[in-house]
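To close the section, here is one more complete example, presented without commentary so you can practise reading it yourself. The ligand is 2-acetamido-2-deoxy-beta-D-glucopyranose.
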Amino acid sequence: MPATIFLVAIISIGATSAQTGDNAKSLVTDLFTTNKYQKKVRPVRDQNDLLVLMVDFHLIGINGVDEASQRLTTTGYLSTLWKDQYLEWDPTSYGGMISINIPQSYVWKPALALQNGFTKLQELGSSVINVNINISGHVIWEPYEVFESKCNIDVQYFPFDHQTCNISFIDWSHHAFEVQIQEGTYGIVTDELEDDGVWTVISTKLYHDTFDLESRLTYSVTIKRTPGFYVLNIIVPVILLGVLNLFTFVLPADSGEKMGYSITVFLSFAVFLIIVNSELPKTAGSIFGQYMIFQLGIALFTVCVTAIQLRFHFRTDPVPRLLSAVMACRCKSKRKITDRNENEKSDRDIDESKLEETWKDFISFLDFILFWVSFLVVLSFTIVVFLKLS
Ligand SMILES: *[C@@H]1O[C@H](CO)[C@@H](O)[C@H](O)[C@H]1NC(C)=O
Ligand SMILES: *[C@@H]1O[C@H](CO)[C@@H](O)[C@H](O)[C@H]1NC(C)=O
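Output:
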């Protein structure tokens, strides 16, 4: 009888300690051999009866969210309870033994499966998992798994986003009129939840849907990204580089540094983008991604404008009248200062000074305008983006 010996060896003795190994042996022999237990048969004596599964979901951890493949990985276990009418016994015949633990493969169990799973459909549980059976035939089975479920991940508000993901369980091989999945006493339990560092669970919800043929339990988990890392390592540097870029317009063209400076800032942006790329969600559509492109665009604009400015800066021909007229307002204020200093200057002199406008003056005037215009554009865009995000 090697099979029986094996069976007995893997049995651990239940809650109370007054029983002997022989009690356990005979209990198992009686339940599974003498009574001809068939794990293929749904354990209700009247096969028209419904078998009710009470399921609690214990969420242990959020392992990760993969934006590109729209996947949520969680660790947890289902605490499942049902009544097996073929596994009842009278404790007095077995030294008062009121419960036993035996490997899950010995008893009937529901074909619970993750409905919105990411990998191929597989039954929960493994051969190392035991079930606990008590005298009234109540079976407790707690399959521990790493669940990979599909989830629609919307990165629009990255890194201030939160995601709601469903984890659905069904009994894949029984109809709803045979096995009904119902929520247990606790529903979804997050007491044992381990902090993940990036994602925090902010709320959970439970849906119980019964369709004609299938009974489904859905655990909906809303998680929130902790933005700290992304703010410090991506958002702040992008804003700082943006500020640096504006200062291209502060450098005078004569310094000879203007072009080199703007190119350096542009390259810093490009290199930085490559570095942070690995930290960003690999999907399009985040507002922050668009903001980075906007900043890159401004940097590119600065480089082009600087190149053109330098070209005109060294021209010696007179500035067209139109441009002089545009500068008139600024010249007027200049003139006032001149007037104050040298009040003897005649109207004729002033007219002359107007004619003296050079390209150099115009470029410096243009720098002034461009600095403030791009400052205001970047500032307002930044404010709008962060208001939208938060
Ligand atoms: C067996 O376990 C179930 C579930 O924990 C419980 O409801 C039931 O009362 C237990 N039966 C006995 C006789 O203790
Ligand atoms: C989750 O499942 C419930 C019930 O099936 C459904 O009403 C809800 O819209 C689902 N939520 C998501 C985010 O898919």
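Once you have examined the tokens, check your reading against these statements. Residues 2-225 form a domain with the Acetylcholine Binding Protein; Chain: A, fold (CATH 2.70.170.10). The chain has eight helices and twelve strands.
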